[in-house]
Amino acid sequence: MDTLLTAEVAANSPRFRRKSSTFVDAIHDMPETGEMAPAQLYSTESGRLFHSGRIAIVTVGLPARGKTHLSVALARYLRWLGVKTRVFHLGDYRRQHVGDGKDVPDDYFFVNASASTVLLRQKILKKCRDDIYHFLNHENGQIAIYDAVNPLAAGRRSLAREFAKHDVETLFIESACYDERIIEENVRSVKISSPDYIGWSADDAVKHYLARISAKIPHFESMEETDLNYIKMINAGERISVNNCSFGYLSHRIVFYLLNLHIKSRHTYFARAGSSSEEDSYKADASLSEEGVEYAQKMGETLIRHRERERQALIDRGGPDVPPKMLTVWTSTRRKAVETSQYLYENGYRVRQRSQMSQLNPGVCEKKSERRIRLEYPEEVAKHEADPYHHRYPRAESYHDLAVRLEPIILELEREQNDLLIIAHESVLRVLYGYLMACNATDIPSLLFPRDEIIEIIPASYNNEATRIKIPGIHEKIIPPSPEDIRIPVPPSGAITPIRLDSSSPKTNTNATGTPLNGFATPLEPGDGQQLLIERALRD
Amino acid sequence: MTTYYKKTNGTGVQVEDTRIAVIMVGLPARGKSLIAQKVVRYLAWLSIKAKTFNVGSYRRADTPQPTADFFDTANKDGERLRHAAAEAAVADMVRWFERESGVVAILDATNSTKARRRWVKQRCDANNIETLYVESKCDNEELVMQNIMEVKTTSPDYKGQDPETAAKDFRNRIRNYEKVYQTIDEDEKDLTYVKLIDVGNQVIINAIKDYLQSRVVYYLMNLHIRPRSIWLSRHGESNFNLEGKIGGDADISPRGEMYAKALPDLVASSVGDDRQLTIWTSTLKRTIQTARYLAASPKGYDKLEWKALDELDSGVCDGLTYQEIADRYPEDFKARDDDKYNYRYRGGESYRDVVIRLEPIIMELERSENIIIVTHQAVLRCIYAYYMNVPQEQSPWMEVPLHTLIKLTPRAYSTEEVRFKANIPAVSTFRSKGSTAKHQEPENGHKDH
Predict the structure, then answer these.
(1) Which pLDDT tens digit goes with each residue over B154-184?
(2) By C-alpha distance, which of B329, B328, B331, B355 is closest to B342?
(3) For residue A196, what pLDDT band results from cuts at 50, 70 and 90?
(4) Would an 8 Å CB–CB cutoff place B16 in contact with chain A?
(5) CA triplet A99, A105, A111: central angle to 5 degrees?
(6) Which residues does the annotated region (Disordered) include (chain A) (predicted)?
(7) In chain B, what is the greatest distance between 2 CA atoms, to the nearest angstrom?
(8) A49-260 and A268-539 share one CATH topology?
(9) pLDDT-derived band at A191, boundaries 50, 70, 90
(10) CB distance from A397 to chain B under 8 Å?
(11) From A120, A424, A461, B128, which residue has the greatest number of CB atoms within 10 Å?
(12) Phi, psi of B397 (to 5 degrees)
């Protein structure tokens, strides 16, 4: 299979992850065929949505304008909607071509490069294009995002012509930036996270990066080609100018998404709502129990402490001593979620209640034991086990319903510039986590969010990464998933938990002695997620 | 039970603490009223409270049928009256936000000067209302003229007047505005605005502040003001219709087949000219069969199948008759009558769910020109409710007979509807609230979604 070519490139990319792990962002994974995406509303015969045909999205912009971030974010959103999308970073092909640890020739990014360099460039370009056509023509792909600088109008025109020959529409997205501060901030974050600079010293990386930019500046033409479809994002979305993008619902949907996107780096934390006092019920909106109140305080303290430590670590590494980034808290409107935010609220953090974030409606399963559900709805249980993401119990919501309902939250999540803590029911956390980490729909219902941990999602331009922050001293009995969940066990399907525990974790021991904490118990094994964590630690 | 549905189940778009005034900007005959009216309809359809405040109608209270002179800026009296009308409209708008917890208000006026726009912003800022300026800028003479012809026949300002005189007066009125018109430019970059140039050919979006604003902009980008119509038809009578069963994927009956054969002529007579239509059907057999003669007609219409146009999924009730549902799921049957819009079939969908899945279809419809949709009763009701502004309590109960073609033509002030009957008998599938058994007779087999 020709896909191997692409797979090879991806596998050699330092950020490639195995499909079995939800610990690392799957945004660069190969999409599965025939699988519904988390928020996909319907499917079409061709597998392409919106009758939009095939589209090449081509980025335009100088380095450090957030093109890669934009490509990856857009891919994440489009896939969430069920549009089969892949990002082709020309940079990955470059690195793949020159091999590990080697660098491209010095004049690689120069316009007046030597003949051999030009040849190398063309070879790399060709491979990338071939992969794009393969994805669109033979893998039922709908949108290929071609992430490269594309600095010249002439080049862009010929690119559009070439795509048109293959019956592919072209949409250019330029990220233009006239605000030096945004560029600098972006250089810093690109410098830290781009695979280009693994093993480089920070100063050298910045110098090289800036040299690369200035080599290109005299030859860069901002998009003015009114005959092409383009979206121009100015100063990270402060203004967006759209030209002639009338070829489909999708292009407008993309603009809609871009209107909510920013390129500032922001951490997202997920925490469960505390446990409530009375017997948990979906309908009765109960207050926190004693343990719940205690949990709320410990969680808040842990988070504040963690953020302070992170900041100190940054300063120790030579980072600027600036005030910490603001933290905003979102909770659902359920009483126990709101009360869980109380400690942070009292410590001066801003709390917003979001009604869309209320938990999955359990319908007829409310307050019923698993045994009773199995007894009363054997057929439903069978259906649920076959497709836990899309199946809904009578009167209940499915995870898919929840994902569709959460779409505004996802766009606002992209909008939010402050760091963000989301306190909600596990079902909501699963779906939001699934979006940020590009999980398969089938994995989402079995993601685990135990109460003794806060999950932190750290964005980088290539992909997001998740880590866990242990909350010490949490009462054992409130750690398992909340009792009001639909407790139909989903057959374990491999390592599908966002939280990979290392062997010294007490919970692994519990598991080893054969007393799973709950129905979702998942075999735990060290995996590539762990590996990446180590890598990250080394890099830092 | 249903109250929980309302609170938690898929209320498409929700907002909180957001109050947005959408301020229209643009010369007359640039489709401002059409846009304003559409935005309100779209938001209402998504359960967001929205209302238009048309400055023209405030002015009309004092000056019902002014001549172009009234709009000359040199005319001090006219100027004063027009400002008073703007004052009154803005005051009402602010009151509406306060008293009726409005979410999106549209101030429909020319707002053609920077000074006027600044004044509106100050009023809104003072009342904690966000502003989103929407400028429709169009220098395409042909489009403007089309719009003038449209407005002169539908605007209350020219009611009962000679069309020629009206058109002439209207063009003079526009000239008066052109004298003072200032487009939104760099001086106003602190404003949140969207500038639609030549009907969305080019769009500039500046400083969008929140999700709902982005949502409105998204909708606006899909709009166009070229004249067009939409034809809606249910599929021809199906075998399930005859048996009084709901859902399923049945073939059409012999009478349904007659309707399918009659459809090309029926469509031709209602179109009236040689406009090119595109046919949209669901993915179910009965709509595809119904549209197949139309698709095969020498006119060469394009045809697209949409999964999103499939009938409301009745879950466990799929393939049952109403009597069977009432027998097997008596509680559900009653729950559905109590709140049909929010009721979700076990394992199936509610009308609200259908509206959410139809949203991309509505966007695509807004972008397209002449479309004929062959679909199902519940889906058709939802699409119809969007165009005709039917409230949620009523739309699921609307009667849409089989073998009838509905033509909808969006106009500046409302949507015009014409129905064409094929005169081919069919069962009635309408079920009124509370009724069950009598609809089960095959010759009178009512079925309803």
Answers:
(1) 677 887 888 888 888 888 888 888 988 999 9
(2) B355
(3) low
(4) yes
(5) 130
(6) 497-527
(7) 75
(8) yes
(9) low
(10) yes
(11) A424
(12) -105, 5
CA distances from A174 to A150, A232, A237, A264, B26 (A): 9, 5, 11, 17, 28
Work out the number of other CB atoms within 10 angstroms of the CB of residue B268: 15
- Close Cβ partners of A506 (under 8 Å, ≥ 6 residues apart): none
* DSSP E strand boundaries for A244-378: 268-272, 327-331, 350-353
3-state secondary structure of A40: coil
Q: Which of residues 34-93 of B touch A (CB under 8 A)?
A: none
Interface test with B, best of A45, A179, A356 (most B CBs within 10 A): A356
Kindly tell me the burial class for residue B119, based on how many C-beta atoms sit within 10 Å of its own C-beta (0-12, 13-18, 19 or more).
middle
* Nearest alpha carbon to residue B415 among B29, B157, B108, B38: B38
Chain A, chain B: beta-carbon pairs less than 8 Å apart: 123
Q: Any idea which architecture A268-539 has in CATH?
A: 3-Layer(aba) Sandwich (3.40)
* CA separation for the pair B414, B33 (Å, rounded): 10
Under an 8 A CB cutoff, do B202 and A355 touch?
Answer: no
Which among B8, B283, B316 has CB closest to A361?
Answer: B8
Contacts of A332 (CB under 8 A, 6+ apart): A273, A338, A353, A354, A355, A357, A358, A359, A423, A424, A425, A428
Q: Where are the domains of chain A?
A: 49-260, 268-539
Q: Where are the alpha helices (DSSP H) in A27-152?
A: 67-80, 90-98, 115-138
Q: Do B199 and B366 form a contact (C-beta atoms < 8 A)?
A: no
Higher-confidence residue of A469 and B344: namely A469
* Token code pair at residue B119: 């004044």
Q: Which amino acid is at B10?
A: G
- The answer to which of A3-7, A96-100, A141-145, B55-59 has the lowest mean pLDDT is A3-7
Q: Which helix (H) or strand (E) holds B24?
A: strand B20-25
CB atoms within 10 A of CB A278: 9
B392 in Cβ contact with B341 (< 8 Å): yes
Collapsed DSSP state (helix, strand, coil) of residue A212: helix
List residues of A with catalytic annotation: 147
Domains belonging to chain B, first-starting first, are: 19-222 (3.40.50.300), 230-444 (3.40.50.1240)
> Amino acid identity, residue B130?
E
- Per-residue pLDDT at A14: 39
Q: ipTM for the complex?
A: 0.75
* B147 marked as part of a ligand binding site: no
The separation between CA B129 and the C-alpha centre of its own chain, rounded to angstroms, equals: 25
pLDDT tens profile B278-308: 999 998 999 999 999 999 988 889 898 887 8
Look over chain A and give the mean of its residue pLDDT values, rounded to a whole number.
76
Q: With 60 as the cut, is the pLDDT of residue A31 above it?
A: no
List helix spans (H) across B209-279.
Answer: 211-222, 239-243, 254-271
Least confident of A471-480, B235-244, B318-327, B438-447: B438-447
d(CA A268, CA A383): 34
Which A residues, 423 through 482, put their C-beta within 8 Å of a C-beta on chain B? none
C-alpha span between A491 and B273 (Å, rounded): 61
Contacts of A412 in chain B (CB under 8 A): 210-211
Report the distance separating Cα A255 and Cα A241, nearest Å.
9
Rounded (to 5) percent helix, strand, coil in chain B: 50, 15, 35
**Chain position carrying tokens 């079920």:** B431
Mean per-residue pLDDT for B190-212?
89
DSSP notation for B339-362: -TTT---TTS--HHHHHHHHHHHH
